[in-house]
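Late entry, zinc ion complex.
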Amino acid sequence: MGACIFCKIINGDLPSAQIYEDEHVLAFLDISQVTKGHTLVIPKIHIEDIFQMDSATAKNLFSPVPEIANAIKEAFHAEGMNLLNNNGAFAGQEVFHYHLHLIPRYDHKDGFS
Ligand code: 5GP
Ligand code: ZN
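Prediction complete; structure with ligand written out below:
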């Protein structure tokens, strides 16, 4: 998809701070860090939302998520983590390339202070 910013990140046309990459998946820091280490995990194929995803893509996407979550938890010394995914404008989705938010949680505040 030409105009999709996450496809541009996958293609290297836009920069990102990458956390993880394999054949099917890219993980990179969210440009607007809700907490320290806030990461997005995306499929390398353009899928708009969960409603468009088939189970093979879901398997590929979620397979590395525990490894990614543990790497972030360790790197940023997080105490916990929220995983969340918005599907559709009415659910708060703003970028229409599927993405899973990994939001580390800390014993106080957002981990920055
Ligand atoms: P949504 O509301 O669609 O679930 O979340 C979209 C997320 O994408 C937001 O948290 C936003 O900060 C992030 N985002 C939007 N544009 C960019 C970008 O160019 N680079 C990165 N790394 N994150 C982005
Ligand atoms: Zn895309």
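Strands lie at 18-21, 25-29, 39-43, 80-84, 100-105. Will revisit in the morning.
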